[in-house]
Amino acid sequence: MGLGNFFKNIFGKKTCAFCGGECGMLNRTKIKGDEYICGKCDDMCSFHIQKYRFTKDELRGHMEYMKRSDRIYKEVALNGARSERFPSATSRQGIEFFDDIGMFRIIDGSKDNKENYPKEMFRYDQVANYEPYIDESEETDENGKKKMVFGEGGIKITLVGCMDDTSTMRKGLRAHPYITEEITVCFATNDREKENYLKYADNAIHHFDYIFGVHDNESALFSFGMNKKEKRDLMGAIGFAKTAIDAVKVAKDGGEISEEKKAEIQANLNAMEDADTDGLAKYTRAADAAEAKIQ
Length: 295
Ligand SMILES: [Zn+2]
Known about the structure:
The radius of gyration is 24 Å and the shape is globular. It is α+β, with helices and mostly antiparallel strands. The protein has helices spanning 3-11, 39-42, 56-77, 191-211, 228-253, 259-276, 280-293, and strands spanning 14-15, 22-23, 28-31, 35-38, 84-86, 93-98, 103-108, 121-123, 127-140, 146-159, 183-188. A four-stranded antiparallel β-sheet has the order 5-6-7-8, with helices on both faces. It has a three-stranded antiparallel β-sheet with strand order 9-10-11, with helices on one face. A two-stranded antiparallel ribbon has the order 1-2.
């Protein structure tokens, strides 16, 4: 290859594998198989995936996936599901929780207003881990004193796909179909915002704790009743006993099970599942139901 070709290859225009449009060097990303995606088509993908890892066909499938995600947001989440946002408004990033449908999304001030960009929903049961992060660096001021300077802070979310060791993973989790990298949600990027926004990060962590039942085995100091985990375990045990009795009855008497009985058995099975997954199964059912609505 001559030098001319070499430069042409790098600086020359390429054709987008998706829309067929021309894309310049600054406005394209290389994907697997020596093809390119233009900026506009890139906007139809998740900003949490590395495009070079995917082929054209895989990215086409991904764009369909993102369209369905956008529909879940617009047709199901915005259609009466309760939401909690941390922070309530931001020009940076934040998290919006939809407990009713077992999903959350990442608010992004720079992406959310783009017309092409579909809203991306994540299922609670895809989250393997979450933790706060702060990037600080040591700097020396004019008097020679060292001080810590805040860079940015927020929370990091690890989905099932980037867990190396799944043996310690909680029960009931499932893999995300595309994302294998850690997700960084940046709440604050300068010192002025630091305190306020890290409070929101803290609130978001608390909400994840609530979803994953982290404090469910703690009783309030002066409470004599059962804590949430004990109640859930008890309901699971009762559900198991009732289901066993129902199964014996059906086996003995044979015949049809009434709709009412079926619903009762399902509720008992759900209680068992909830106890087995520390409450996560409730959100799995909610997310399944939300996905089914847009099929
Ligand atoms: Zn394109």
